From TrEMBL:
This is Trans-aconitate 2-methyltransferase. Gene3D superfamilies: S-adenosyl-L-methionine-dependent methyltransferases, Vaccinia Virus protein VP39. GO terms for molecular function: trans-aconitate 2-methyltransferase activity. One of its GO terms (cellular component) is cytoplasm. SUPFAM superfamilies: S-adenosyl-L-methionine-dependent methyltransferases. Its EC number is 2.1.1.144. NCBIfam families: PRK14103.1 (NF010703). It comes from Pseudonocardia cypriaca. HAMAP family: Tran_acon_Me_trans. Belongs to the methyltransferase superfamily. Tam family. Its main location: cytoplasm. It catalyses: trans-aconitate + S-adenosyl-L-methionine = (E)-3-(methoxycarbonyl)pent-2-enedioate + S-adenosyl-L-homocysteine. It is found in: Cytoplasm.
Amino acid sequence: MTAPTWDPALYLDFDDHRSRPFRDLLARVGATSPRRVVDLGCGPGHLTSVLSARWPDAHVRALDSSSDMVAAARERGIDAELADVVDWVPAPDTDVVVTNAVLQWVPSHPQLLPRWLEALPSGAWFAMQVPGNFGAPSHALVRELLAEPRWRGRAEVRGDSTVPEPAHYAELLASQAADVDVWETTYLHRLTGPDPVLKWISGTALRPVRDALDPGDYEAFRGALAPRLRAAYPMRPDGSTWFPFRRIFAVAQTS
């Protein structure tokens, strides 16, 4: 599956909800005076400034594989660079690496983690967060619809084995780190407006579908998906919708 194109504005529609896991992840990083901090997969750069504010004396480097995201980050004043995480190698003075909601797009990331940690200096911190909800209705219903005759073979999306379970991440990181902290959290997001779950996944999970279909077919696909999502995530009497979202976190400090 090729990497999807990204719409920074659509991605930021749920900025408050998407930013909270980043801040929860960062709270577990104990670095005090890092020399270099890397935002690996910085997106539109809206959270890179959080890293700069926490470690004002560090050299903060922001990388992303999407030219649209890099352009959006630069518009915010972030000196972002276009780079693929698969090709990234830590510089010798890299003391903190943060990668937030990125590695689920990189099938080879379980092989990359030990390599990255081995290349980091002693005492460096590595922090990652990935969605762990690929078996949830928000994703399963997309796969079910793509399996129907009209859509079969026209687009490919990620399956429920996209990311390993927390224990697997713990084993991968423990092979190269002195201290490892792995946990999961299911956030219960309260969304508002019509078809909010459809809107949410339109900025993420549906990107490969949008890229594969022409605009008319993509809207037809969304139209067929909408009532299924409404049934799985019903609107409450006050007009809001509960959207459970599981995420997996890991923080490691190298030996």
